[in-house]
Structures are given as C-alpha cells and as structure tokens.
Amino acid sequence: QVQLVESGGGLVQAGGSLRLSCAASGRTFSSYAVGWFRQAPGKEREFVTAISFNSVYTDYADSVKGRFTISRDNAKNTAHLQMNNLKPEDTAVYYCAAGIFFSSLPHSFSFWGPGTQVTIAS
After folding, report:
1. Dist CA 16 CA 62 (whole Å)
2. Using one digit for the tens of pLDDT, what is the confidence trace for 7-43?
3. Pair type for strands 116-121 and 10-13
4. Cβ contacts of residue 72 below 8 Å, gap of 6+?
5. What is the spatial distance between Cα 31 and Cα 88, in angstroms, rounded to a whole number?
C-alpha cells in the first residue's frame, strides 16, 4: 500500500510558476511509477506527466511539454512537478498517482492522493 498526499497548489498569475510535491508513505514507493493528472471543472481527468520508478523514463502531455518537469526522490519518498509559464487553462485539481506500470492512463495507477487545487489568474 502507498498513501499519497499532494501539496504546493495555490493561486498564481499567468506566466508564474508553482512546484507541486507528492509525499508518499510506504516502503514500496520506489517500485512504482508516478503520474500527475489534473481535472478541471466539468472536464474529465487528464494525463499531465509520468515518471518511471527509476526516473529513466518520463512522458508529458503535449499541452505541458517544455513548461512542466516531473522528478522524484526515492530516498525521500517524494515526487515533484515543477510548473513554469503557467496559463489559465492549467487551472485544475492536480492529483499524484502511483502504479506498477509506467503509463499515461489513469486506470494504470492504483494509488491516488486527494489532490491539490491550482488556479491561474489571467
């Protein structure tokens, strides 16, 4: 079992930056891929980025490529999402997830955090 808690959300102006963190409990965090997903009001949850268990592989949605960077520190049981040049359309609840498979599909991830709100003002 892995428990995940996100932090670092908030309200920023367009063009600004935020760094989200995902703190995990459980000794097996280093065995799991980590993904970040987001859900805006009235929309389905969508893939943002993912990182493999050993950080060798990363994947990004086209909408965030070049602006967002995912990273992880297995020694500290944490993952991070650095978000730069934020746009109003990035406004959503952001979720951290962990799963066995490196994937962009939500159903591939077994463990989810409660989410953190990110709001970008224009």
Report:
1. 19
2. 999 999 999 999 999 999 987 899 999 999 999 999 9
3. parallel
4. 34, 51, 55, 78, 79, 80
5. 34
